[in-house]
Structures are given as structure tokens and as C-alpha cells.
Amino acid sequence: DLIYVLNGPNLNLLGTREPAIYGADTLDDIAGMLEDRARDLDLEIDLRQSNHEGHLVDWLHEAQARGAKAVLLNAGAFTHTSIALHDAIKAIRTPVIEVHLSNPHTREDFRHVSFVGRAAKGTVAGFGATSYMLALDAAARF
Ligand code: DQA
Fold this sequence. Notes:
Layout: E1 2-7, H1 19-22, H2 27-41, E2 44-49, H3 53-65, E3 70-74, H4 83-91, E4 96-100, H5 115-119, E5 122-125, H6 130-140
């Protein structure tokens, strides 16, 4: 089964971006860890990153069209702003798991609202790169 792992704005800079908050792992490191775990779970990973909201909307539609089993979505700051992502998640039948490296609830007030979380099946946040691994394990059980 196929799992989409979609990453939003600024996540291309992981590794050097505010490492005290987001950790030292790069997105490539996370991709490698996910691929290792996916092999054990007999899953295939399609991991992408974009700084553009519309790309993420298109990829959510594509995940359904390709029959993906689930989407792991770290929408970055679009989490807190994007009705378009909220609506795209609602528009597809493919289950979406919201993922965050940090725990937005312990941070600035503007991170306390999640339009992604309102539409997602569930959320994993606050465990750094491990958030993605836990979300993958959840998706494997769908
Ligand atoms: C993030 C949390 C968001 O608030 C922030 O805008 C990000 C990263 C996380 O993974 O912790 O870009 O999604």
C-alpha cells in the first residue's frame, strides 16, 4: 500500500531551521527513516515538500486518485491558516493524519488553531521526527 507524506512551507530547511524547536534531522533523514520502517510494514512512501499551498491541495487530490492508503500531512504554517487544505482533506475519502515535529499547543497562540486538525482523522505532534514514525504506524493499521 501507498502512503503519501506531504510537507509544507519551510520544511525543506529542516536540519538548520530553528533546531532547538524542530531538531537536527533533515527532511531527507526523515524520509530515510520512514522508508526503512515502511519496508518492514510492507508500505511504499511517496514523500514530497512544497512551499506552495496549491501544490499541497493538488497532492491531496492525487493521493486519492492514486488510491493511497493514507496521507501524513505536516502542513507547516498552512496548518493554522488554510481553509483550502481543510476543505481538500474533507473532499477526499483518503484518511489524513496531521503531523507536527513540535507541539503547537505549547507555542505561540497563533499556532493553537489547526484547520488541518479539524478535518484530519488524528494528530501526532511534539515528538520530533518520531511524530512521522508514529503516524506511519497508525496508518499501517487502517
Ligand atoms: C510545524 C508547526 C507549525 O506551527 C510551523 O509553522 C511549522 C512546523 C511542526 O512540524 O512543528 O512550520 O508544522
